[in-house]
Recover the amino acids of this structure.
């Protein structure tokens, strides 16, 4: 198996929750970064998630088009074709951080297409989509989540929601680093009452929840980001007690949790978050840097070969995009392996 079916994706999430590990979810913006992510997962012998953001989807369609649906469809088609050559790992495709203003031009049309695919007996293009309601009131956030969850069920996909604000910047959206970055068990109870739990009575995955516990997008020096992963434990524990008799309830971890804004987090903070039921951790800033740092190093070392200095002709083999592209892919792949090891998914690819 290479690209997850809905059943396989559900099994992946359940295995991570039961096994106490999480999958790196790697943001990609090109075929090169996609190939780097696949290379990293294969090297780590880890299943994983590959995702495109609202900006990444537009970028994938080309600067002239900037069409998120076209970019997403092109990504999914290319990714499926290439991923089939990696038979020892399973990957899922995900759309990341769709705010309300982009629903009508991005995730809703994709879900509509996937519903039609399912009706024709096909697999959906993507295995999950994220609704980012972090900037709207909780009632409105949940109202939209309910609508999208109904469509997700028809499309055989999993919905990801975000409850609370994540600080920093992601694709042009900025949030302050303040007390709004911390969700509460009361927030979680409202989500569970409105949406049900993360799995249905048969144990199939329905949605994942990114409750915030001080998360911040981007890269920061130590001390700026103050994570409180113990909040996730409180959310899980109180929800488990309140919904203990609900079909599909898990004894200790009723929610499939997602960790956003993890760059620069301490290892013990990540480990504690995973122990409380985080099954997916977004990795973007660190892999962006790993990819670009290798390119910068190549250009610095070979500046007189990639530039036609003093009327010379340079060296084609060094400014050929494949030369520095291979270095960038290898560097990013190594960072993906590091994430798999840190999150515990390395060596656990499902058979």
């Amino acid at each position: 198996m290479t690209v997850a079916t809905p059943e396989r994706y559900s099994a992946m999430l359940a295995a991570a929750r039961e096994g106490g590990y999480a999958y790196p979810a790697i943001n990609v913006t090109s075929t090169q970064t996609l190939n780097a992510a696949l290379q990293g997962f294969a090297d780590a012998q880890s299943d994983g998630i590959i995702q495109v953001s609202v900006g990444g989807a537009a970028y994938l369609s080309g600067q002239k088009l900037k069409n998120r649906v076209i970019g997403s469809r092109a990504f999914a088609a290319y990714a499926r074709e290439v991923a089939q050559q990696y038979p020892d790992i399973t990957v899922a495709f995900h759309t990341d951080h769709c705010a309300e203003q982009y629903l009508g031009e991005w995730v809703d049309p994709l879900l509509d297409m996937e519903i039609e695919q399912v009706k024709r007996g096909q697999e959906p293009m993507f295995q999950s989509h994220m609704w980012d309601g972090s900037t709207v009131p909780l009632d409105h956030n949940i109202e939209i989540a309910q609508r999208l969850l109904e469509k997700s069920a028809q499309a055989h996909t999993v919905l990801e929601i975000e409850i609370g604000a994540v600080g920093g910047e992601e694709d042009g959206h900025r949030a302050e680093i303040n007390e709004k970055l911390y969700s509460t068990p009361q927030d979680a109870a409202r989500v569970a009452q409105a949406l049900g739990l993360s799995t249905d009575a048969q144990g199939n995955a329905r949605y994942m929840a990114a409750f915030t516990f001080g998360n911040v997008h981007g890269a920061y020096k130590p001390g700026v980001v103050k994570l409180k992963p113990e909040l996730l434990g409180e959310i899980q524990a109180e929800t488990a007690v309140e919904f203990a008799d609900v079909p599909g309830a898990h004894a200790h971890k009723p929610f499939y949790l997602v960790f956003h804004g993890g760059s620069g987090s301490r290892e013990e903070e990540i480990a504690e978050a995973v122990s409380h039921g985080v099954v997916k951790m977004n990795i973007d800033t660190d892999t962006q840097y790993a990819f670009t740092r290798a390119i910068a190093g190549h250009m610095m070392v070979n500046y007189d070969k990639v530039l036609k200095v003093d009327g010379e002709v340079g060296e084609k083999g060094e400014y050929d995009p494949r030369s520095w592209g291979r270095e960038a892919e290898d560097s990013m792949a190594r960072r993906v392996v590091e994430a798999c090891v840190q999150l515990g998914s390395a060596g656990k690819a499902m058979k």
